[in-house]
Amino acid sequence: MLLQAIRDLEAGLCATNLGSGLFKVRMARKGQGKSGGYRTLIVYRQDNIANDELVFFKEFATTLLALSARQIDVAIENVELYEIEEEADER
Known about the structure:
Blueprint: H1 2-10, E1 15-19, E2 22-27, E3 38-43, H2 51-65, H3 69-77
Antiparallel strand pairs: 1-2, 2-3
């Protein structure tokens, strides 16, 4: 669902631009429509990233890559990180 939300965002569909690369999108729950679904915030930028943003994302990536498999599992269980997998019918 998140991958589809990003595709919709790229196509200019169904998103509210909150500024600074932050978008609010509605995602449908299985078996329901978007109006009763999830509200999700996505940080997205197609153009160049400013130097200070690049520094932040590199530091953030370093932090994420330093996590052990167990720490990642715990973060997913605590809904601090999300594992996104492409479903077979989306490939």
